[in-house]
Amino acid sequence: MTTLRIRDAHAADAPLLAQWAAAMAWETEHKRLDPATVLAGVTAGIADPGKARYLMAMHDAPLAGDEMIAVPAGTLMLTREWSDWRNGEWWWIQSVYVAPEYRRQGVFAALYRHVEAQARATAGVVGLRLYVERENEKAQHTYRALGMDDAGYRVFEAEWT
């Protein structure tokens, strides 16, 4: 298990987050994203907490001597959805990415537990949600191991871009 610190993303993180978003789209859906559009989207999300909140998992790695450097290991994006049924907000976990060299080391679990603790401590938050590709069984196993259940919904969309 890698020791991690979780922090909010900064504007300077946008290029890496955009790169990771494009990598995730390719790995999970075999979709090629336009790099400029993704960078603009990540930049807008970081700048406006009403749009999104990005979290970074940082791993402390040795640099030289006793010096350490914080290396990004993974990320996720949070968005909010109002639920009139529950009179509260769902926090949606999206844009999950763990750098290949940190996979299967608890990076997503650390990010998830951080978000879960914040959600439980925030009045009006009713739960966490995410969506996952039907064939991504590794991710589904991870989500179940963290206490999430299949909500039984299918996602439909009408896309204009």
TrEMBL record:
GO terms for molecular function: acyltransferase activity, transferring groups other than amino-acyl groups. SUPFAM superfamilies: Acyl-CoA N-acyltransferases (Nat). CDD domains: NAT_SF (cd04301). Keywords: Transferase. InterPro entries: Acyl_CoA_acyltransferase, GNAT_dom, MshD_Acetyltransferase. The keyword DNA repair does not apply. The keyword Transferase applies. Residues 4-161 form the N-acetyltransferase domain. It holds the Pfam family Acetyltransf_1. This is GNAT family N-acetyltransferase.
